[in-house]
Amino acid sequence: MTMFHFFNCAILTFGPHAVYYSATPLSEYDTLGTSVKAALVYLGTALVKLVCLATFLQVSENDGFDPYQELLKALIGFIDVAGLFFALTQLTHRNISQNHKFQAVGLGWAFADSVLHRLAPLWVGARGLEFTWDYILQGLEANANLVLSISLAALGSLIWLRKNKPKTLIPIIYACAGIVATMPSITSYLRRGLEWHFPKVVGFELFTSLVMAFISWQLFSACQRPSA
């Protein structure tokens, strides 16, 4: 029963990444190499973030919300944006379109994040004798992160790769990218500042990911239309 629960949670956590790759044109254009490169860039970015967090953050004795510490975390979190910039603009990609490139990068980014932050807790905890909903919620959270990562990659693609953007949409693109990039700080505030329970936070992440995906899709479609 414990292994069955583990496999269920693992499929919920990592399965959507494989489904997204196989169900979209990414598999037809063989973009797996791009996703792997993006995952490696994520691991390097995570290492830089870890060093910065260990260097500049103080160890808090309580689990309360510290605005200064959270602001510092948010600023360090923008290293992810620098990593995405490198993955989208500096890596060598096969001859794939901009549309497929940002999806492949976002997919690899999200998969590496799930492996790094959720695989070990899942392996240790989901095989326990006592059933808990926490690891199912972590799987749902991984799905929200997948959508948010692809949305951020789409917005980054518009910012850095799309030159002929409608000027009226540029502030909206930057604002949406800022919201998605600061989502970890927003959820941290909900947990520690407002003391939301984990299921409520995951629900918020799922709802926000769908909203941001819809907005990103609309913005990407609008920027692809020929200007009048």
From TrEMBL:
Protein name, per record: BOS complex subunit TMEM147
Organism this protein belongs to: Hibiscus trionum
Subcellular location: Cell membrane; Endoplasmic reticulum membrane
GO terms for cellular component: endoplasmic reticulum membrane; plasma membrane
Family, similarity comment: Belongs to the TMEM147 family.
Alphabetical list of PANTHER family matching this protein: BOS COMPLEX SUBUNIT TMEM147, SMALL SEVEN TRANSMEMBRANE DOMAIN-CONTAINING PROTEIN
Record's bilayer topology term: Multi-pass membrane protein
InterPro entries on file: TMEM147
Any one Pfam family match given in the protein's UniProt record, by short name: DUF2053
Keyword set, alphabetical order: Cell membrane, Endoplasmic reticulum, Membrane, Transmembrane, Transmembrane helix
Major localization class: membrane
